[in-house]
């Protein structure tokens, strides 16, 4: 019928009303076949509602969905899968103790059986799309990037031709992001279509063929990456001028807030995870730690928080707190914004006001003389919700009902509400949209102005450079380099993060690292 | 807006057990029908018999130890610990407490003091027995499920070993049974005549059970310790990050659970048998079932315990009518199974509903979700 090939996905006039509210209104998106189409927007802008409509989880009230030119009406994700649509979720859904092959086949046993035929099919998919994964490998042995490839293979195995990727880079380190983008380009080269949901604008600009911006439930612009800058895109997203993470005037004092000396952390197996770290954070100073994830950042934070046994000393505002419990440290003014808010920061099933108490359950306004003061805690939660712009209909809502950004705002609000002397902030704006990010930066900056010391760990180099007064680079559990945030570029920092400060050339890095590893092993063996 | 949220939050915990009981009724109807018995007359018979004053008193008597046992299990459940060992804990506790209370060297001690002593010793022994499992868990990482099950068996052996005439037991008059020495009358707790229309009273210990329920509610919902305990159950890693000492919490929860478990055998000791006998058993597992049925809620578990008591009492009439009373056992089993499933389902739906509602109300910032 049509002379030129129809668009892979065409959404026209999509409107979805929930009782009393319009979540999506009059959305128009056309995704060309074989392209990477990015959909950007703030959290709560309606991206996920739209994707749930496309994936058959919701039915639109108005509008039409056309897949490859023909109108469809999905009533379940199964139908969407049948029509060749696959969803790669942000959080991986893999069984660690099964192999790649078993994970892929799980739930789709009818397609190619569970034996050699299935393995052959997986190998074929890996080869065809350049998704390198060994089907026999155990998932628990795979890195994050590999796991994501397994997730992609999972949907391809089920015959998807149109892939929806929900915030796929949120869990990846820069190198893995590059790899993912390479994979995505190869997928589109093979004729597949990719819908890429993100709010990381640099990434969107570098990988997408076309970009649609959603704001307040409707499509506000469709642009080509060549025609816009990140700032323009962000402005489209939030509908106003965008703040930057830059810290204006220095507020660094000479009074140490947190002093760490010779901090060493060993793994259960005796491997050195943190190797003699010394650092001092002064009042009013943000100390940024740059590093590729997995170089000891998490262990450093947990050791300072007292959640993990460590050698060395930690001083908080002049008090030696090395032997203190986590609770005592927190009561003494150590605030904590954890890296993984679901694991360490929230009780997902509990209402917001109970989450407001978490971590400060021994302090006012949450309790007094061993008894909870729920009235006061509730009231203070209302204040945090208001002051930190947590978008929620009320404080009785369970934490899981909030979007990640709003959960994060609640956590930041909670930690800031106890006048911390030092804030340990691990990825404080991860998974948070631009608007909330700016607000969190503002709060950190304000507290820093009032004399707060901050240990900032982030994978977002712009955030690190913009917010920090001092920058240190962590590599294999050691602080290997210092950088001046006023002059350093993200590229230089990125290079230092790969250990280039220690080794003359990245090319020999692997070899010297291996040698170093051997050196470390040897004396241990003798001692034993 | 607040009320709108309340029903989303409050309804499912009610729907789940009610639905489960309904399912249990349906399943037992089928069982009755298949067995060639009339369904509705049977239920009517049970209801008639079960609602007589004498039956109500008996139901309350049965519910008292069940409730204590459920609370003991629930304390563990709330922090993610499965104390399967309530059975062993209460048996060894009741034996030792009864033996002490009835021992001849206690003769000079006034009755009230002895009652208090028996209660305290039972709680201490229960806590100690549960403490073994806690210790194994925090020092050696032994799952409390395994260790408490094993400790149940060991407790059974211990009880059999100690309850012989050359140790703690005495030969009961006119029977082969070996019991602990019969407690003198001033150590009995008299029945409460709270059910009118019958001369049967209700265990005086029911007051203690009710107090334990209130204490449980207060401890978990109103104290910092309770918050720590619930946090540790809901998200162990977040609890640790919030400053909860995980190991101490395991020990505290197990000791508390065991202490309450120690009370389970006492209603019968004080109110009925006045000595420990081997015949008392299995109350620990019933408690787990009731804790599940009542979703660890102090009032939910009270209803669960009463329902259990009612079913067991009303089952007695069935045999007289030639209907197998195991029908009731099937009903109980199905109810527990169904409530677990139903609760999972409703909590899933609640989660969805909440997320949807929050999504709606924040999607358009202007009207902040105020809608009809």
Short account of what is shown:
The complex is a heterodimer of chains A (528) and B (372). Helices cover 36% and strands 24% of the residues of chain A. With 372 residues, chain B is an all-alpha fold.
Keywords:
heterodimer; A: 528 residues; alpha/beta; Rossmann fold; 3 domains; six-stranded mixed sheet; 19 helices; globular; disordered C terminus; B: 372 residues; mainly alpha; two-stranded antiparallel sheet; 2 strands
Please, could you describe this protein's structure?
The complex is a heterodimer of chains A (528) and B (372). With 528 residues, chain A is an alpha/beta fold. Chain A has 3 domains: 9-238, Rossmann fold; 244-333 and 419-503, Rossmann fold (3-Layer(aba) Sandwich); 348-418, no CATH class. Chain B has 372 residues and is mainly α. The N and C termini of chain B lie close together (9 Å). The model of chain B is unreliable at 364-372 (pLDDT under 50). The interface between A and B is large, with 54 and 44 residues.
Explain the layout of strands and helices.
The complex is a heterodimer of chains A (528) and B (372).
Chain A: E1 9-18, E2 21-31, E3 36-40, H1 47-54, E4 62-67, E5 70-72, H2 77-82, E6 85-88, H3 100-105, H4 109-112, H5 116-129, H6 144-157, E7 162-166, H7 174-189, E8 193-198, H8 201-207, E9 210-215, E10 218-223, H9 230-238, E11 256-266, E12 272-282, E13 286-290, H10 297-304, E14 311-316, E15 319-320, H11 326-331, E16 334-337, H12 341-345, H13 352-357, E17 367-368, E18 371-372, H14 374-387, H15 404-416, E19 422-426, H16 434-449, E20 453-457, H17 461-467, E21 470-475, E22 478-483, H18 490-500, H19 509-527
Parallel strand pairs in A: 3-8, 3-9, 6-7, 7-8, 13-20, 13-21, 16-19, 19-20
Antiparallel strand pairs in A: 1-2, 1-4, 4-5, 9-10, 11-12, 11-14, 14-15, 17-18, 21-22
Chain B: H1 2-34, H2 39-50, H3 53-78, H4 86-102, H5 111-140, H6 144-162, E1 170-171, E2 178-179, H7 206-222, H8 224-234, H9 236-241, H10 246-261, H11 266-273, H12 283-293, H13 298-320, H14 326-363
Antiparallel strand pairs in B: 1-2
Helix pairs in contact in B: 1-14, 2-13, 3-7, 3-10, 3-12, 3-13, 4-5, 4-6, 4-10, 4-12, 5-6, 5-10, 7-8, 12-13, 12-14, 13-14
GO molecular function (chain A): ATP binding; ATP hydrolysis activity
Membrane topology (chain A): Peripheral membrane protein
Main location (chain A): membrane
């Amino acid at each position: 019928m049509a002379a030129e090939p129809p668009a892979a996905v065409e959404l026209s006039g999509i409107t979805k009303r929930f009782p009393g509210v319009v979540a999506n209104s009059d959305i128009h998106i056309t995704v060309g076949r074989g392209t990477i189409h990015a959909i950007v927007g703030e959290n709560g802008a309606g991206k996920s509602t739209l994707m749930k409509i496309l994936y058959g989880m919701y039915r639109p009230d108005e509008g039409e969905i056309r897949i490859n030119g023909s109108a469809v009406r999905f009533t379940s994700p199964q139908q969407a899968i049948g029509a060749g649509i696959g969803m790669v979720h942000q959080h991986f859904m893999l069984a660690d103790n099964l192999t790649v092959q078993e994970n892929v086949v799980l739930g789709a046993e009818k397609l190619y059986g569970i034996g050699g035929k299935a393995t052959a099919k997986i190998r074929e998919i890996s080869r065809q799309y350049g998704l390198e994964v060994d089907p026999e490998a155990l998932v628990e042995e795979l890195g994050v990037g590999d796991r994501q490839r397994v997730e992609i293979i999972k949907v391809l195995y089920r015959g998807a031709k149109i892939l929806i990727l929900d915030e796929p880079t949120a869990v990846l380190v820069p190198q893995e992001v590059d790899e993912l983008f390479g994979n995505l380009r190869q997928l589109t080269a093979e004729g597949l279509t990719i819908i890429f949901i993100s709010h990381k604008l640099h990434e969107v600009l570098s990988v997408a063929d076309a970009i649609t911006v959603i704001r307040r439930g409707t499509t506000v612009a469709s642009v080509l990456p060549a025609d816009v800058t990140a700032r323009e895109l962000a402005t489209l997203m939030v509908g106003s001028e965008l703040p930057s993470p830059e810290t204006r005037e220095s507020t660094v004092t000479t009074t140490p807030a947190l002093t760490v000396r010779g901090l060493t952390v060993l793994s259960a197996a005796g491997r050195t995870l943190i190797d003699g770290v010394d650092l001092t954070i002064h009042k009013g100073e943000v100390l940024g730690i740059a590093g590729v994830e997995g170089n000891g950042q998490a262990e450093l934070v947990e050791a300072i928080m007292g959640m993990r046994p460590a050698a060395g000393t930690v001083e908080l505002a002049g008090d030696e707190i090395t032997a203190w419990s986590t609770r005592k440290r927190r009561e003494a003014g150590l605030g904590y914004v954890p890296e993984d808010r679901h694991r360490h920061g929230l009780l997902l099933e509990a209402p917001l006001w109970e989450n407001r108490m978490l971590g400060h359950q021994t302090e006012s306004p949450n309790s007094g003389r061993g008894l909870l003061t729920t009235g006061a805690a509730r009231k203070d939660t209302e204040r945090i919700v208001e002051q930190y712009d947590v978008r929620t209909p009320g404080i009785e809502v369970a934490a899981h009902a909030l979007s990640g950004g709003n959960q994060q705002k609640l956590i930041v609000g909670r930690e800031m509400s106890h006048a911390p002397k030092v804030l340990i902030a691990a990825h404080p704006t991860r998974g948070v949209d631009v608007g909330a990010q700016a607000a969190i930066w503002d709060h950190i900056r304000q507290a820093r102005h009032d004399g707060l010391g901050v240990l900032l760990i982030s994978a977002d180099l712009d955030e690190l450079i913009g917010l920090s007064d001092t920058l240190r680079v962590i590599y294999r559990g050691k602080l290997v380099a210092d950088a001046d945030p006023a002059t350093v570029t993200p590229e230089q920092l990125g290079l230092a993060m790969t250990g280039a400060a220690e080794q003359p050339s990245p090319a020999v890095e692997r070899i010297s690292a291996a040698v170093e590893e051997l050196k470390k092993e040897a004396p241990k063996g003798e001692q034993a | 807006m607040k009320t709108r949220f309340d029903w989303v939050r409050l309804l499912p915990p009610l729907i789940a057990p009610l639905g489960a009981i309904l399912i249990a009724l349906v399943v037992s109807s089928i069982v009755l029908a298949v067995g060639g018995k009339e369904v509705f007359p049977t239920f009517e018979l049970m209801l008639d018999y079960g609602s007589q004053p004498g039956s109500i008193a008996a139901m309350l008597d049965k519910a008292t130890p069940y409730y204590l046992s459920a609370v003991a299990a629930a304390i563990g459940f709330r922090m993610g610990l499965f104390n399967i060992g309530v059975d062993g804990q209460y048996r060894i506790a009741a034996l030792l407490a009864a033996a002490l209370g009835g021992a001849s060297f206690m003769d000079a001690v006034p009755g009230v003091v002895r009652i208090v002593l028996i209660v305290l010793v039972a709680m201490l022994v229960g806590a100690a027995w549960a403490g073994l499992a806690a210790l194994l868990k925090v020092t050696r990482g032994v799952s409390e499920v395994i260790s408490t099950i094993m400790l149940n068996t060991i407790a059974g052996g211990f009880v059999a070993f100690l309850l012989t005439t050359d140790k703690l037991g005495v030969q009961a008059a006119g029977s082969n049974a070996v019991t602990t020495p019969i407690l003198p009358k001033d150590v009995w707790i008299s029945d409460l005549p709270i059910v009118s229309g019958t001369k049967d009273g209700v265990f005086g210990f029911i007051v203690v059970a009710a107090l334990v329920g209130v204490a449980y509610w207060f401890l978990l919902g109103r104290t910092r310790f309770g918050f720590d305990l619930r946090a540790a159950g809901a998200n162990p890693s977040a609890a640790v990050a919030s400053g909860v000492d995980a190991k101490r919490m395991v020990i505290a929860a197990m000791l508390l659970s065991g202490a309450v478990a120690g009370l389970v055998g006492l209603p019968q000791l004080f109110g009925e048998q006045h000595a420990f006998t081997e015949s008392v058993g299995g109350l620990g597992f019933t408690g787990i079932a009731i804790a599940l049925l009542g979703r660890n809620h102090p009032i939910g578990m009270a209803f669960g315990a009463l329902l259990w008591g009612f079913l067991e009492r009303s089952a007695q009439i069935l045999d007289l009518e030639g209907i197998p009373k195991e029908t009731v056992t099937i009903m109980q089993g199905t109810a527990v199974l169904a409530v677990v499933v139903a609760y999972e389902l409703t909590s899933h739906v609640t989660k969805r509903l909440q997320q949807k509602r929050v999504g709606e109300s924040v999607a358009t910032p202007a009207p902040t979700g105020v809608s009809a």
